Amino acid sequence: MAPAPPHHVVVGGSAAGVAAAFGLREHGFTGRVTLVDAGTDLPYERPPLSKPSGGHPAPRPIMPSSAYREQGIELRLGVAVRDLDTGTRTVTLDDGDRIAADAVLLATGVSPRRLDIPGRGLDNVLVLRDIDDARAWAARLAAAGPVVLLGGGFIGLEAAAVARRRGLPVTVVEATALPLGAALGPELARLVVQQHVAHGVRFHTGRHATALHGAGAVEQVELDDGTRLPAATVLVGCGVVPNDALARRAGADTGDGIRVDGHGRTSVPWVWAAGDVAAYFSPYTGRVQRIEHWDVASRHGRAVGASMAGVHTVSAEAPYFWSDQYDRRLQMFGRARPGDRMVLRPDAGPEHFLGFWVRDGCLVAAAGLDAARQLRAAKPLIERRIPVDPAALADPSVDLRSLVRAGTAAA
């Protein structure tokens, strides 16, 4: 009797999970592949959730259902994974079913950090994690009344832009002194904030909410300085926590995520992890960390899927993210560190900018607003660590592609 084919189980219908399942097939894995997700919808894209365009947003599938059939990827939707049994190498589902697995990939992502203050259970206090949350947010955008956003990160500011375009009063409460300061640095973060101020967004920085007030539904947000902000809707965007409980119970090393090596393997040999939940060494940051962006998660998932198939692969492209701010797109390649030299082109303003970070004579990151062409040209400079002259980066007349060509010829 022929032995049963190997079976790899992917837990989580996230960008990383879907990419890993298809990565297994693309790199020659011919055994069984099962993707398990607690949601009932076909795995869908998460970035559009913060910017619904209509009254009842529909999920946008990552891949069509036909693609799963064609690749022989079995979907188990509407059921969560309850436990991993390392001794028997089985996956226990919350409906009681047990699945034998030769390898498991955890692509469980992150969850919004919840408020722990009085009034957190009032109606119209929202987070943005899944399609149901997006529909609740869309419904509130159609209602009258002021919106208070707790957290001035990318999700919060995208939501602020959407709400202002609907004509709603918007206030952002941010615990740090400058929204997006850690991600973009003070020079670029100030320009993004200026754009929002010009659109009528109000900011309370260096503040946090201490209580929510209302009779049934939220009516006010109380801040730590005693200020009370009127609110018909509160959207909470105060960071995330990694969904690493399955890995911890299975005995894998965790600590702000599931720790993995360069190929995605955890400290438990049959368990792998990818995407937002995975903490791994990035040459672009010089440390072990999670990188929480859609494009990064998808690329990491595909690389880990390839490694699980026996084609050892490292996701080596520069980290990339984008964020829609009103009708403009903010993009960034690479990652900056404290101490990097910031180079800002002189034509920078709240509606368009291009900035660079230089370390040890090389470009390590670039970010811009409505600067897609220049950023695409900067990407190979970052990835190939081509030495650059900061004065050339600052000069709007310099074509960055010429710097790539010159650096390649000199190598």
UniProtKB/TrEMBL annotation:
Source domain of life: Bacteria
Cofactor: FAD
Alphabetic keyword roster: FAD, Flavoprotein, Oxidoreductase
Boundaries of every Reductase C-terminal domain copy: 320-404
SUPFAM superfamilies: FAD/NAD(P)-binding domain (SSF51905), FAD/NAD-linked reductases, dimerisation (C-terminal) domain (SSF55424)
Cross-referenced Pfam families: Pyr_redox_2, Reductase_C
Residue ranges of every copy of the FAD/NAD(P)-binding domain listed in the record: 7-301
Signal peptide: none
Gene Ontology cellular component list: cytoplasm
Gene Ontology terms for molecular function: oxidoreductase activity, acting on NAD(P)H
Matching Gene3D superfamilies: 3.30.390.30, FAD/NAD(P)-binding domain
Name under which the protein is recorded: Pyridine nucleotide-disulfide oxidoreductase
Organism of derivation: Dactylosporangium siamense
Higher taxonomy: Bacteria, Bacillati, Actinomycetota, Actinomycetes, Micromonosporales
